[in-house]
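Problem statement: downstream parser choked on a complex file, so we are re-checking the raw output for the zinc ion run. The parser issue turned out to be on our end (a line-ending mismatch), but while we're here, posting the original submission so the record is complete.
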Amino acid sequence: MSDFPTAGDPAPTDSDTLGAIPPVVTVTYCTWCGDSLTKGSHVTCRANLEHEPPRHCSSCRRELRVTTEGSRWSAVCKKHGESSGELSA
Ligand SMILES: [Zn+2]
Ligand SMILES: [Zn+2]
């Protein structure tokens, strides 16, 4: 018996199981009403956001300091910095 497996054979690793981990669901907040997006429906909020800038940070729900210039807006969260966008007319 000279041909049984040697130490050079690849050992089974745990890396196969990594693909089975479900994606982490990050809870974000409605930028209009500041409530959790997983709570209730924000259909009207989304409609409002079409023509008005956001009011709350999506990460921490803090109130944003919003400035608008024409159809462009920029909103500053004390913690997460500035975001900007454009409103549809
Ligand atoms: Zn909302
Ligand atoms: Zn924030």
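For whoever reads this later: Residues 30, 32-33, 35, 42, 45 surround zinc ion (ligand 1) (CB under 6 Å).
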